[in-house]
Amino acid sequence: MSDFVFYDLRRKVGKRDINILFPNWEAGNERVMVLSPHDDDALLGAGYAIAACQAYGSTVSVCIFCDGSAGYSRPEHKTSIVEMRRRETLRAYSVLGVPEEHVHSLGYPDFSLVSYIGWRLSAGREGTLARLIPLLRSQRITRLMIPNGYREHSDHEAAYDAGRYDGVQAGDPVLVDWGTPCSIKSTVQYAVWGDLSPEDALVSGEDTRIRANKAIVADYGLERTIAEALAQFESQGQIIQGLLAQRRERDCGLGMMELYLSLDPRPKLEYGPYAQLIRSLPLE
Fold first, then answer.
1. Confidence check: pLDDT of 155 > 90
2. What is the pTM of this model?
3. Would you tell me how many other CB atoms lie within 10 Å of the CB of residue 24?
4. What is the fold, at CATH topology level, of the domain defined by 4-280?
């Protein structure tokens, strides 16, 4: 078992306690799903979290939105790249201990996911809502990890929107013929390769260079395992090589870090502060 230290970057505390990342964790009764825009994104941005959740008694599933059809670096692979990447994906996640039956591919075309957000689309098509809610309910998912929605890639932003909007609907008493509703207890955003939104840091009055509010520091051995998993994407060799080089910056001297942003996808409107302000205002 790898050694994990979890950090709350707002409270400035670190512990060997997964409750920092996922509050009220119930070992043996958790089912985590990572929404991955493309096949390698969950490994790149949430690989340590996947391993940590497994170590703390949870099953982990990965839902891949896009089919990889744009990911060919050689023209002769244009017609075969989707099948190539499907095989590579299963090999890659098996390295991290995620079985084939927990890898779900939705098959949307690359660079096009934004046009599939919602339920009923043009020309009689159905969007992500009709695929994601039944999946979340059938798997009884308790925790959701969604990709960075800030300036990384249009498919990343679309998967982020699907996660934060469609995800909460899984627990609502709607569309009940799609499965028995199940509430997701918490949602965490992970950075694939770009910086996160500064919104949380600004609201918290923090240094806007520190945009993540949670982190994991894992041992160096786990990073080698992630590299082995990513190496299974042979068709993506040129891209993966550059990303692996960038990952060296994760070394914080205590191990390798992975950054997240806990968020509330459906924040409650608190009327109390408004009432207090209104009562204090003079009438003219």
1. yes
2. 0.96
3. 9
4. Rossmann fold (3.40.50)
